[in-house]
Specification:
By secondary structure, this protein is mainly alpha-helical. It is built from 26 helices and two strands. It is globular and about 65 Å long. The two termini are 42 Å apart.
Length: 514
């Protein structure tokens, strides 16, 4: 996907597609948004028609309240902006955008504060196209964004894997003399670690040290993850002593990183010991803590402990994560223990988790390859009938559930339904689609998804490459694996242990053939 940054920035001049969902060969709908100078699209992706006003109207703008109010209340320009900001504060960005559309249809624009609220709200729900268009408009009107707004844009772009766009934001910040703050560095650090970009991660850490920005628990937890993902788990654990020496208390983030590191390398006893110590020091485990423990026990085949942890988590009043329940379903389903799954449903219902039970029942139907939810559209309809509004993460979970079974068409349909809800697919969703085609043995279509990612300026991460390598290994196309590995390194992604193991497997097979 290509965005257009006009006016003062001149970052690119290409017309942007409406969403990341133009999946070339897969038959998804594609529409294009051709931005005009100082213009924007509303939530329905239709061009807002600007209407010329008389001078008297421009001086004293009065607006009717647009949302069905029978009070006859009229809004001044100031009250209009306050209403937009109010809708953003309560998370109702659709109503805020409708109000902006009506305002612009009369030839007016939001004020600088409203622009900031709108861009932050749109970025937080993944609607980066609209956030970008509003930012263009804001720059055209000569408003000077503050660091908070730049951080919101960075976070939104990087959440979707749009590294190129994020870099351009950093360039504009530099041109406008806006200095990075601690949050800016942490946003970049979070993305680089998750994307497996080792050199970029150390660059950010060194820049923080150079600028006198303290390395807090968040930064150290990310460095631990970096060591963990690159096979240096003992070094990751050794970093804990350095943290203590600096007088930084071990908080939840650091504990979670240590537990996940032990879990990933099969040291489950140590992970549980750290978990107990965490509770002894009055650091309350959060959903991330429980997810990590349950996931790694599932991976190790210790379903008894995984289910005990799952039950204990609910007893602590925490909302079960669908992704973790999916791990349990896959393991229990492989063993044919559907009665255990059913028992867990009943327990959740007893705790008043009716909505959660509905979601998990859908996942069970998908994994069981039976039932009425094999069709993605029926699945989403069932969720809505229960009063549940599907989020981006829920769409991702459902798409992954279909992908794990190799149901490619249903995985694609989930992405279509996601777009229909106004949510733009991100790099995570595209990785899920690569995985779906890989499991189904359709490696060429998996490759076409990767090509789509590169052609549309979305930045692939280490998961993209390792998933693509796995797809070619499944198809016994071992000669392509080293090529993908080399491309991963040339793109700046540091191969993790899984990628290195797959490369070794492919090279061994190729050596035996010759």
């Amino acid at each position: 996907m290509k965005f257009t940054w006009e006016c003062m920035m001149h970052l690119t001049s290409s017309a942007p597609p409406l969403t990341h969902g133009s999946f070339f060969r897969l038959g998804l709908n594609q529409s294009h948004l051709k931005p005009l100078r100082c213009s924007r699209t509303d939530n329905n992706n239709s061009r807002v028609k600007q209407v010329a006003l008389t001078e008297s109207n421009k001086k004293t703008p009065i607006f009717k309240y647009p949302f069905g109010s029978n009070s006859g209340q009229e809004l001044s320009a100031e009250l209009h902006n306050q209403t937009i900001q109010g809708f953003c504060k309560i998370g109702d960005v659709d109503k805020a955008m409708k109000l902006v559309a009506q305002l612009e249809a009369l030839g007016f624009h939001p004020n600088s504060i409203s622009y900031c609220f709108l861009i932050e709200s749109l970025g937080s729900v993944g609607r980066t196209l609209e956030a970008d268009a509003l930012f263009q408009e804001m720059m055209c009107r000569r408003f000077k964004p503050r660091i908070r707004l730049f951080n919101a844009l960075l976070k939104g772009f990087l959440r979707k894997g749009l590294l190129g766009l994020a870099v351009k934001v950093l360039v504009v910040m530099d041109q406008m003399g806006v200095c990075k703050n601690q949050e800016t560095h942490e946003i970049l650090l979070d993305y680089y670690v998750n994307a497996g970009r080792l050199e970029d991660t150390w660059m950010v850490v060194n820049e923080m040290k150079k600028n006198g920005i303290p390395l807090n628990s968040f930064v150290y937890s990310k460095v631990i993850c970096l060591y963990r993902d690159n096979g240096m788990w003992r070094k990751a654990i050794g970093l804990v002593e350095e943290i203590r020496e600096k007088g930084i208390s071990l908080d939840r983030q650091i504990y979670n990183s240590i537990i996940d590191t032990f879990g990933k390398y099969g040291e489950l006893g140590e992970a549980l010991e750290v978990f107990e110590k965490m509770k002894q020091e009055s650091v309350r485990p959060d959903i991330t803590t429980w997810n990590s423990l349950i996931r790694w026990h599932c991976k190790a085949g210790d379903l008894t402990m995984a289910l005990e942890l799952f039950t204990e988590m609910q007893e602590q009043g925490l909302y079960p994560d669908p992704k973790i329940f999916m791990s349990l379903i896959s393991r229990l389903g492989e063993l044919g223990k559907w009665n255990v799954i059913k028992k867990n449903f009943e327990n959740m219902k007893c705790r008043g988790r009716q909505e959660v039970g509905t979601i998990y029942a859908i996942l069970v139907d998908i994994y069981g390859q039976y039932g009425r939810f094999q069709d993605a559209e029926n699945c989403i309809s069932a969720l809505k009938s229960e009063g549940f509004v599907p989020s981006a993460s829920m769409f991702c979970v459902l798409a992954n559930a279909y992908a794990q079974q190799g149901f490619c068409e249903q995985t694609v349909k989930v992405l279509q339904l996601m777009e229909a809800e106004g949510i733009e697919p991100n790099i995570i969703m595209l990785n899920v689609l690569i995985n779906a085609f890989g499991i189904a043995g359709r490696h060429e279509e998996a490759l076409s998804i990767y090509q789509h990612i590169r052609e549309n300026d979305i930045s692939p991460d280490v998961v993209t490459y390792s998933t693509l390598m796995k797809a070619f290994i499944r198809a016994k196309k071992f000669d392509k694996v080293p090529e993908i590995y080399e491309e991963m390194e040339s793109y700046g992604c540091t191969p993790d242990r899984k990628a290195r193991q797959m490369l070794q497997t492919a090279l061994m097979v190729l050596e035996q053939r010759h």
